[in-house]
Predict the structure.
Amino acid sequence: MADRTTADGPTVRRLTPRARQIAAVARGLLEESGPALLTMRALADRLGIKAPSLYKHFPDKHAVEVELISQLLTETAEALEAAEARAPGSLAALADAYRDYALAHPHLYCLATEHPLPRTELPAALEDRAALPLLRACGDDLGLARAIWAFAHGMVTLEIHGRFPPEADLDTAWKRGLKALRP
């Protein structure tokens, strides 16, 4: 894994081709089996190598997880930016994009959101980029944006973990929750 400084100053992580391959295999293993089964040994087995070889590219499992969290934040930002472009200012469009992404990648979502965010290890401004479409839709009201994100995160987490009864109308719950937060 190599770092470089851009013309604007922030450090951008650049993975070597082999590290990108390892990250892709790690993501496949995560998406298939869940965070508990993403181990360096399982990753090495999937790659057909010995676990110590992984440490040439990632210092530990945490570094692999940070890369996967970076992927989630990047892809979430892209999904929200696309929703914002289609429907500027629409909280419903942003909420749908957020929910759709999280439900399409439940294990990655859980890995990234069920523990403290490793902010200092993520690419500079990535978390902000992921939050900007929502912040803009909230008229730059940070408190409102955080409340809406907390609502969306809670709903998605409960949905991923099957905590709603089968007959629950989650689409209506989403609409009611967003309306309650921003009438």
Residues 61-86 form the longest helix (26 residues). Strands lie at 2-5, 11-14. The first strand starts at residue 2 and ends at 5.
